[in-house]
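Input sequence (197 aa), recorded before submission:
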Amino acid sequence: MTSVSLPLLIISAILLAVRHGSEVNAFIQTTTSISHLKFSGDKYLIKNANNHEAINKRRQPTALPMVTKSGGRLIASIEQFDREVLKNEEISEDPPLDPNLPVLVLFSAPWCGPCRLTNPVVKEIMKQYQNKIEVVEISTDDLPEVASDAGVLSIPTIQLYYEGKVLDTIVGCVAKNVLAKSVDKVLEDLGMLEEQV
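Predicted structure, token format:
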């Protein structure tokens, strides 16, 4: 049986800690040797007890799909959230969301069962209110700071924004008619709801 000098679980925990590019030094005591890991920027240095070094580049994250399972556009960074939902910046690399429309934001996570049930509801609402609202989705696993700043305590949470302000919040898995009433109320309050005959 071979001994593993750096347990995979510990390395995974350290990699999570440096996900945002911060510098971390870790000394790991194993049964066979002392190892040193140093993460800085996009490189990491590994030293084992024999003082052998290996410098490697961290893998860059792969490109995420632009459209989510809910049909909404994926918000992949804090800057993108600020720009497209809070309307703090004018410049956008991606085709911009219509600044004159409210934005429905779905906060979810891939492992969340109720979120998976909410996806088709949001997709139907997106189709029903096409050209009346924009729909985006945020993974709370990828952007916990955005969720925290938005006051999201549990998922799924749906928030409706207009001009950077939250107009309505719905927590939990909801039926289509409940979400539609919320969207109608926001559109009515903004004077954007067309009278149905």
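Checked by second reader. Strands lie at 24-29, 34-40, 43-47, 53-57, 73-74, 103-108, 134-139, 157-162, 165-171.
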